[in-house]
Design goal:
This protein has 115 residues and is an all-alpha fold. The chain has one domain (12-103). The protein is built from 4 helices and no strands. The protein has helices spanning 14-25, 27-42, 50-63, 77-87. α2 (27-42) packs across α3. It is globular, with a radius of gyration of 14 Å. The protein starts with 13 loop residues before the first helix and ends in a 28-residue tail after the last helix. The mean pLDDT is 83.
């Protein structure tokens, strides 16, 4: 796996640190993100939503594994989306991203996008 510390958003802080610890402790999550993204791309999609993949992960861990209590914090979705796109430069806009709230005071619309 590439050096995770090479992926640091500007002013990275507590949420990034929490994601990094989660990512290191749960490598299967990223493996499945890659699998699901590959499936979506194979179906011809050029863009997709990390939220949809995240809910598919929840289904997988709740219904298809022996750990129905495994939790996937929503705070990690943005970091996984950005990390996946960094690891897959041939799909730089696969996930639509907004400015991370944890690193910006820029006014945002109701969807978290910069105004």
């Amino acid at each position: 796996m590439d050096d995770l510390f090479s992926y640091q958003p500007p002013n990275f802080g507590q949420l990034y640190e929490e994601w990094l610890a989660f990512h290191k402790a749960n490598p299967r999550v990223y493996e499945l993100i890659c699998t699901y993204c590959d499936q979506v791309i194979a179906r011809g999609h050029e863009n997709y939503a990390i939220a949809t993949i995240w809910e598919r992960l929840r289904w997988h861990f709740h219904m298809e594994t022996s750990d129905p209590d495994f939790k996937l914090p929503n705070n990690h979705r943005a970091y996984y989306a950005r990390f996946w796109m960094k690891q897959h430069p041939q799909h730089p806009d696969f996930f639509r991203t907004a400015t991370l709230r944890s690193i910006s005071n820029t006014p945002r619309d109701r969807f978290g996008r910069d105004c």
